[in-house]
Specification:
The protein is of the alpha/beta class and about 230 residues long. The protein has 10 helices and 6 strands, in the order βαααααβαβααβαββα. β4, α9 (about 185-195) and β5 (about 195-200) form a beta-alpha-beta unit.
Length: about 230
């Protein structure tokens, strides 16, 4: 297939979100002088956050509510009196500085940039995602950045893809490939929009969703061969 446009997910695909998340959470706890035990707090937060984002993808919670609700749940049984809104602001400001990359991300983007239109298509908070991308080594290899908050839609909704195609100035679905680590967001979204899909499955996760991506890779550098 002769692709012209490559849509790349950000977190978990190009960026090491786990590292950025862990760093931001620990620093936020320290900022508010709250005792932080990584094995307890980080695992608890990740369970809550995963469910919150799944609820968001399934329209069970609004985007603005998402900001606060995950921290309300995190601290609801703790003795500390926490201002959830302030904690969220500090956490997100710290997260915005997390520019840790996945192995091969810069090399792959540099290669793709010379041959295709490259756009990052990501769910998330615009100020956080834009800051992370623009302050990373990847910025000079990306033609467009589309964040769900600016579009009014989120992956896997087709609305975010319509927005992206209009912003990028691309109309041919048949020459478009989306690459991402999430089956329910990236791959489902690509299938919904009838574009080619590539599942970046770096951890060897079993696919129990019934979704069938066109391609599956374990290492980003496999894109050299695929494309």
């Amino acid at each position: 297939m002769n692709y012209e446009l490559i849509l790349l997910d950000a977190d978990g695909t190009l960026f090491d979100y786990d590292m950025a998340e862990a760093n931001a959470l620990e620093k936020a706890f320290n900022y508010f002088n709250i005792k932080y035990v990584e094995e307890v707090e980080l695992e608890k937060y990740r369970m809550i956050n995963k469910q919150i984002w799944a609820d968001y993808e399934n329209d069970k919670i609004g985007f603005e509510d998402l900001r606060i609700e995950r921290f309300r749940r995190l601290f609801q049984n703790d003795e500390e009196k926490v201002d959830y809104n302030e904690f969220s602001k500090i956490y997100l400001s710290l997260l915005a500085g997390g520019t840790y990359l996945k192995d091969g991300a810069e090399e792959v983007c540099k290669y793709l940039f010379t041959k295709y239109k490259i756009a990052i298509l990501t769910n998330g908070f615009k100020d956080v995602q834009i800051s992370r991308i623009e302050n990373s080594p990847l910025n000079k290899y990306i033609h467009q950045i589309i964040v769900s908050e600016e579009t009014g839609y989120k992956k896997p909704d087709i609305g975010i893809f319509n927005y992206a195609f209009n912003k990028i100035g691309h109309a041919n679905k048949g020459t478009t490939l989306i690459v991402g680590d999430s089956l329910t967001s990236d791959i489902q979204g690509g299938i919904n929009y009838k574009i080619s899909t590539c599942w970046y499955n770096s951890i060897g996760e079993e696919n129990k969703t019934g979704l069938k991506p066109d391609y599956e890779i374990k290492d980003l550098k496999e894109l050299f061969k695929l494309l």
